[in-house]
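Morning F.,

Quick status update on the modeling queue. The single chain you submitted on Monday has been processed. Sequence for confirmation:
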Amino acid sequence: MISRRSVLQMAAAAAGAGALGPSSTAQAGGKRVLALIGDRYHNADYIRVALDRVLDGLNVAVDYTINYDQLSRNVLRNYALFLCLRDGMIWPGGYFGPDAYPYQQGLENRDFPEARSQNWLKEEQALALRDFVTAGNGFYSLHNNSHVSLSSKTYREVMGGAYIGHPALRPFKVRVVNTSHPITQGVHDFMVDDEQHYVEYDKDKKDILIEAENIDGLTFQNLGTKSIAGWAYDYGRGRVVFTSVGHTIHALWNPEYVKLQKRAVQWLLKEI
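C-alpha cells below.
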C-alpha cells in the first residue's frame, strides 16, 4: 500500500526537481533516481524513451527533469542516484534551431542575433553533487555530460574527465577492456552508429571499462582511431560511472549497451 503521505512526499520532491513526471518504470519502494536530460542538441523526449527501456525492471522510481537551474543540495537529498545526459550550455539569447545546420543563411531577413552559449552550472551545484556522491550515492554521467566538466573543476573531479570533441555520426566498435568489473559481466563487444566522443580521463586507468575504435581507420583531430568510452570508480562512500555512447536512440538501445547501462545503474546503487 502507498500511503497518502508518501504520495505527497513524492509529488513534492518531483516538483522540487522541476520534474517532467515520474517514469513508467517507477515502482513502489524502489530507489529514487533523478535524471537531468536534454539540451539544444539532444531532445529530452528521445532520451526519456531510451532510458525508460534501460531502467525497466530495475525497481527504481525515476523523476525526469530538464530544469538544470533547480539542481541543488535540497533536491538531491531525495535521491540515491543522479543521472545526467545533457551538455554544459544554455542559450539565453535564443537560437535559430536545435541543430547545427545553418538554415538561417538562406533567409531574406537575417535581423536576429547570433546564437551565443553560456555555462549553466553554478559552483554550489557542483559542490552539492560532490557532497551527494561522497555521502554514498551514485552519479551516472552519460554521453555529452562530459562537456559540463569544462566549466567546473569540482564537477570534473567528481565525474572523472572532460569532453574534447567528436566527429560526425559514424560506425565504431565498443570493446570491453575490463572484463573483471561487475558492470561488464556478461557484456560483449558491440557496434554502434553514433558520435564517437573523445574525452580526457583524469583517474586511474584500471577503472576504464570500455573503449571505442573506428575500425575503418578514421581518426579525429590527430587523436587516433581509439577513444576511452567509459569508466567506473568509487568516490568517497559513493560511486561514479561514465559512458560516452548516446547521441541516438538506436545506439542507446543496442542490446549489449542496454545490458551495460542496466548493470551500471545496479552497481551505482550498490546492488551488484
